[in-house]
Amino acid sequence: MRKLILGLAVTLDGYIEGPNGEYDWCFTDQDYGLNEFFARVDAIFIGRKSYEIAQQHAAKNGEIVPGLPEITEYVFSKTLKTVKESAVLINEDSIAEARRIKELPGKDIWLYGGAELSDALMKENLVDELWLSVHPILLGSGKSLFHKQNKSFKLTLQKSKTYKTGLVSLWYTINK
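The structure assignment produced for this chain is given below.
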C-alpha cells in the first residue's frame, strides 16, 4: 500500500501560515530535500484553499513548487465545480476516496495541505508519515498545523537534518 506523507513547512511555534495566510517566511534559497522527496511520490492530495493558492502561485511563477515532477493531483473540495484538466476533483466521500487511492498501485502520496484536509485524514489514521520542515521563526499567530484530536499519536523519528540556515527537517513514522 502507498504511504500518505504529510509534508509541510512549519514555524517553530507550529504555524503553517501567518495570520493573513502569508507563507513568505518559508525558506526558498535551496532544495531542503525536495528533490529526494519528489522521487518518492507520484500523487498529491490538496484541499481547496491550498489548491487555489497553489494555482495563483503557479500563474505567477510557472510552477506550484520548483522541481515538482508531473504527478497526479487530487483536489479535495465540496465547493469547487471544476479543477484544471490534469487534476482530479474529489467532492464526495473524501475519506473513502483517500483510502481507495492509497490502495492503487504507485509511489507514495504527498499530503500537501491544507489544514482541514490534513486534520480529517489524521483523524482517520490515513497519514503514515510526517515530513516537517521546521523554520527558525516564531510567528505568534496564524493557522496551526495540528488541530485538537480525539487521541494521541506516537511517532518514531526516522531521520533528521539540520541546515546552516537553521531549518530542521524531521521525518517521522506514525505508529499505528
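Interim note for the steering committee: Strands lie at 4-11, 15-17, 41-47, 72-76, 87-90, 108-113, 129-135, 143-144, 155-162, 168-174. The longest strand covers residues 4-11.
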